[in-house]
Amino acid sequence: MAISYEQHKGGSPLQAAKRLGAAGSRIPKLRLDMLKLSGRKIKAKEIIFFTSQLSLMLEVGTPLTSSLTAIENQTKNPAFKEVIHAMGKDIEEGLQLSDAMRRHPQVFNHVFISMIKAGETGGFLQGILDRLAEMQEKRQALIAQLRSTLTYPAILCLVGLLVVIFVLVGVLPKFTTFFAGKESILPITTRFLMAMSKSLRGYWWLYLISFVGLIVALKLWKESEPGQALIDRFCVSAPMVARLYNKIYTCQLLRTLGHLMSSQVPLLEALEVTQATIRNRYFSRFITQIINHVEKGGRFAQPFTTYPYILDSVKQMVATGEEVGNLPTVMLRLAGFYDTEVDRELKNIASLIEPIALMLLGGVVGVIVASVILPLFKLAHAVH
């Protein structure tokens, strides 16, 4: 029979983490810095492969240490190979898998470790590994869909910028001799492009420094507290994008919490672990409201009814799931449903962005061409 975390080693995973941190002086520090020393990043697909392979080997009855050794031999990334080797040594020395993973926070996050701990406690580690692999695959699929949606417009914008720079620097100067002294009859767009061309050719270094400075400033602003607050607010309340982002955050919350609860992690503990994975401050505060409400003896579904960024269907289904005592299953079903919804909306956005980006690019090129060709016709007509 599965037992709860409080019954296991006299405390919860969070308490276990604190005990492990207190014992940090007895843990070799070298292993915590392996990834920095190795100079190679461990990719998400490598962690998915590790999780799936470990689940498969445990399913066929391979001992844990032998499984880790076999996966280590299949791993090509030196950084990840070192991590797996260190975990195998730790397990041989008597540590559990979750404790060995906790020594590598750069690779395994709170959700991963908490679910592994639950699997060890309840005796269903292989099933937990399958759930973790599914969670990671869903997350990577969402990231891939977001990238594919934004890649094409980004390429079009870059191509448009390069075309404009090429025309201003390489083409337009050849016509300035025809336009010299006749500025009064030139269209305003032509005069503006001539000024831009002269400025770019004379002060290109200043434009380059300004561009790099703008990128750095935007990065610093994004990482600052006011920048993060504005971005978080934009994601949950801006027209057109808020509905999509609210579905993404809701889906992440429901999936993580559903998997943790179905893995027999206590509700309050599952909420705390889930909160650490949510980056948006508004959804993080929402989880804090749920924790405070549940700690006072309230029902889990009650805070959902008053939260403005949760869809009505989610509120109703969560309340129903709590009433029938099958909340984890309901949350995972909802997460799967909204996965499909997010994928559909991203495809719709991509289908709208592509023609708009093409129209904007065509418009910019059209204005530039018209600003060069039309004055030539005007001058030819005047000469005639």
Would you mind describing this structure in some detail?
This protein has 384 residues and is an all-alpha fold. It folds into two domains: 7-108, Receptor-associated Protein, CATH 1.20.81; 134-384, no CATH class. It is built from 18 helices and no strands. The longest helix has 57 residues, at 327-383. The N and C termini lie far apart (99 Å). 27% of the residues are buried. Residues 1-39 have low confidence and may be disordered.
Give the SSE layout:
Elements: H1 13-22, H2 34-38, H3 44-59, H4 64-74, H5 78-92, H6 97-102, H7 110-122, H8 125-171, H9 176-179, H10 188-202, H11 204-223, H12 225-237, H13 242-262, H14 267-277, H15 281-295, H16 302-306, H17 312-324, H18 327-383
Helix pairs in contact: 3-4, 3-8, 4-5, 7-8, 8-13, 8-18, 11-12, 12-13, 13-14, 13-18, 14-15, 17-18
